[in-house]
Every structure is written in C-alpha cells, then in structure tokens.
From TrEMBL:
The lineage of its organism: Eukaryota, Metazoa, Chordata, Craniata, Vertebrata. One of its GO terms (cellular component) is mitochondrion. This is ApoA-I-binding protein 2. Transmembrane segments: none annotated. The gene is Yjefn3. Residues 1-186 form the YjeF N-terminal domain.
Length: 202
C-alpha cells in the first residue's frame, strides 16, 4: 500500500465494528442531499467520511459543507482506486453522486471515475433517490448495483428495476397539495418515522 494511501486510510484505527460510512457526493442536488445525509449520520452516532471532489458554488450547498466541517466530519482529498482500501475502512457507502438530475452525466469527470470504483466495492451501497449511472425512467444502463435504495418524495420509474435487498421511501414531508397535484399515493408512515420500507430485507 502506498504511503499516501496509509495516511488517508489509517485502517488500524477503523475496526469493522465501528459504524463507519463513506458518503460520496456529486456536484449537483443529489450531492447536497448526501451532505445532509452525512450530517444526520453523525447526529445518530455513525462515523461518516465525505468524498466531495467537485464542490458546488451554490450558497446553500456551501452552507451544508460548512455544517459538516463544523461537526468534524472528515473530507477525503481523493477516492482510492484500490477498492480493497474502501472495503476495509468502511461498513457502507452512500451513493449521492448523480441522482435524478444526472445532468453531470456518467461519462464526465469526476463522476465516471467514481462510478468505475463504486461498481467494484464489496460493502453495501445505499443509493439516494436514483442509483448513479441509471436513467431516471429506463433504469440501469451500466450504472452501479446498490443494496439499498432510498427514494426521495416518491419512487422514480427506474425503481421498478431495482433488485437490491431493501427499498425505502422518504416522503413524509410532502405537502398535501403536492401529493394531489402529482397524484401521489404515499405509504402510511408508522409513528414518527420519516421513511417507510417498500421492500422487506431479504
């Protein structure tokens, strides 16, 4: 292992029993959602690390970044191409690279290199809204294969092709007029839960 990799990933200090999560954020809206996700993971005593190589100039996204920094969430300067380093250092990866907006396109950097790496990790991947590299309607066309999908607001058309272990929807926050306008039929959220499982674990 190169010295730079050992410095970026102090594996002896990251035993597998710790709830370590790598949150990979893209440059657009889904990346901002990833930053919010990392902040919430920290609140619930997980140990997130963020890889956010192309930061948005949007003031709101900058605020999300600052919040994560002030919570002492570390940011990686690069994503190792040696996948075993990721497998050993983390228990899961949150995919917040492209999402439904996907205007960055899978073929453009840094997204293409990130997806090429994520396709080979062996730890569970949790995709936010739309798995990176998927068409929002048609589904997978060489994108990643997540273990868990968290649909935001409502499942997108591509979710029909999701074959992972668990599918959740997070849409309790949607106002009634929005639900009515788009003819949504949201699931019943138990108690105070903000997400509901659409598919039980396999």
């Amino acid at each position: 292992v190169p010295v730079s990799s050992r410095q970026a990933f102090p594996l002896p200090s990251l035993p597998r029993k710790q709830p370590t999560v790598l949150v990979v954020c893209g440059p657009a809206q889904n990346g901002a959602i990833g930053l919010v996700c990392a902040r919430h993971l920290r609140i619930f005593d997980y140990e997130p690390t963020i890889f956010y190589p192309k930061r948005s100039p949007d003031p709101l996204y900058r605020d999300f970044t600052t919040q994560c920094e002030k919570m002492d969430i570390p940011f990686l300067s690069y994503l190792p191409t040696e996948v075993q380093l990721i497998n050993d250092a983390y228990n899961a990866v949150v995919d917040a690279v492209l999402g439904a907006e996907a205007e960055a396109g899978e073929g453009r950097e840094p997204c293409a290199a990130i997806l090429a790496t994520l396709k080979h990790v062996r730890i569970p991947i949790v995709s936010l809204d739309v798995p990176s590299g998927w068409d929002v309607e048609a589904g997978s066309s060489g994108g990643i294969s997540p273990d868990v999908l968290v649909s935001l607001s409502a499942p997108k058309q591509c979710a029909r092709r999701f074959l992972g272990r668990q599918h959740f929807v997070a849409g309790r926050f949607l106002p009634y007029d929005v639900q009515k306008k788009f003819e949504l039929n949201p699931p019943e959220y138990p108690g105070t839960e903000c997400v509901v499982a659409l598919r039980a674990p396999r």
